[in-house]
């Protein structure tokens, strides 16, 4: 089995698609992820992902449909999940197109729209709380000036 595992080390970003597409699955046994871009990229290639419950993995991965979410990076739990996904792949393979469909909301158009909406909301909140006149500022800064 060890001959079937490749620890490639650092891979150029433009070559990642070849690795994701050649893989049977991606395992992300992290203790911490700020978001989980590597999982999202793998899923975009139609490759199932096994990952620990960190960052946005709960939002990105759908148990049984696009991979498996683990509660901890315990090696036994990871090994069991790998066996489960590979066994499932032999019986009834995960559909790459269904895996890709699970993350369709993460396209750049939707992300840009969500970011713009957050900025707009933050600006609206700020504008509602901002002082309007010089006299509004005076009381706030008397002790500083």
Order of helices and strands: HEHEHEHHHH
> Overall 3D geometry?
elongated
The parts where pLDDT drops under 50 for at least 5 residues are: 141-145
Instruction: Indicate the proportion of strand residues.
Output: 5-15%
Q: For the largest beta sheet, what order do the strands appear in spatially?
A: 1-2-3
How much is the radius of gyration in Å?
A: 22 Å
Count of DSSP strands = 3
- Global mean pLDDT: 86
Number of helices: 7
Helix content: 40-55%
Coarse structural class: mainly alpha
- Straight-line N-to-C gap: 72 Å
Q: Largest sheet, described in full?
A: 3 strands, parallel
Question: How do you describe this structure in short?
Answer:
The protein has 145 residues and is mostly helical.
What would you note in describing this structure?
With 145 residues, the protein is mainly α. Helix content is 50%, strand content 8%. It is built from seven helices and three strands, in the order αβαβαβαααα. It has helices at 16-22, 37-44, 57-60, 75-91, 96-101, 108-129, 134-141, and strands spanning 26-28, 49-52, 67-70. The protein has a three-stranded parallel sheet, sandwiched between helices. The longest helix has 22 residues, at 108-129. 14% of the residues are buried. Mean pLDDT is 86; it is low at 141-145.
